[in-house]
């Protein structure tokens, strides 16, 4: 059955989230399908940053640590993120990058597993996760063994040697969702702890960490949370694990940082997972994105994400069916996060041609075109427009230009 432009208009008119689009700065003619790499700018960030810069920093200077509550911003915004991931207040702290938080969560989990020697993950995980694990194993002189297995054999690899299993819930290429509760239960049954990477989950799908009995989790601030380039990331540690030993034992994680005592004593709560001075300005911008996400109903966000992705896939099949795109995500929408991806021999060049036509997605080596679907600011018309432009590029073979063949540093 073909999809008419009337259908699209009606989908947009009946979209319960359509008013959120006005909350974002969106350039004319642009169809932005990369919100899973860098979310758009929420308009409210501009006045908030002006206030943070001129009043808090400019006028208040150091007094703003107390007067503007800078000192509590990591846990204040952490408590807000907690609501999006099924955690309790006091279980999430904001700061540093996802990579650093992966290191913190892994080492904290290892400190709770003195008799086990393996950190386990899967081969196709987002590279930084595996790099951090490899570096940790090297740093520990191989006393902790890094082990990776194929994505489908993770649970079978859980034996009595595994201290920590690290997995990403929504796969960054295929969008395949792992069952957080099921995997956590299997790991616990084998005596392992789990660190979940929620970078492609938070703000995109419903997550309930405490219902799953989760141990640790980390995630990104600049993707679906729209926190801005290089936004601080977050770390979740279940209340059960607030005695875990932080290895990055900086002064902001100290029980009494302003006593300036000689010996490290970790804070008795989530603050122990802080290290140095928090990135206050970054947290101010991130808070705007998180607030906006909290105003939306996550069930509606998920429903729209599924509808956008189904429309995308159906339109590609209908309008671009002859051009060799291979859908590489799970066909069952319940098993898929908020993106769609296609393999194509000329994926890189086609993505370049799309960008020239103001459709922004991204290319993931070796041959994948990935399109992020962000329900807060995308309309159904955006999807229809993107596929139309893709069709034109394929019919005209626009991608076949020499300038589209040179690989840029960031894809
Ligand atoms: C985006 C992403 C990261 C990013 O890590 P940074 O330290 O913020 O660069 C990590 N893990 C996954 C799964 C991601 O998708």
Descriptive key words:
globular; 2 domains; 7-stranded mixed sheet; Aspartate Aminotransferase, domain 1; 411 residues; Aspartate Aminotransferase, domain 2; binds pyridoxal-5'-phosphate; 11 helices
Describe this structure in words.
It is a single chain. The strands form 3 sheets. This protein has a 7-stranded mixed sheet with strand order 2-8-7-6-5-3-4, with helices on both faces. It has 2 domains: 5-32 and 297-404, Aspartate Aminotransferase, domain 1; 46-295, Type I PLP-dependent aspartate aminotransferase-like (Major domain) (Aspartate Aminotransferase, domain 2), CATH 3.40.640. It is globular, with a radius of gyration of 22 Å. The protein has 411 residues and is of the alpha/beta class. 35% of the residues lie in helices and 13% in strands. It contains 11 helices and 13 strands. Helix 4 packs parallel to helix 8 (280-295) and helix 5 (98-111) packs across helix 6. The structure holds pyridoxal-5'-phosphate. Pyridoxal-5'-phosphate is lined by residues 97-99, 126, 128-129, 168, 172, 197, 199-200, 220, 233.
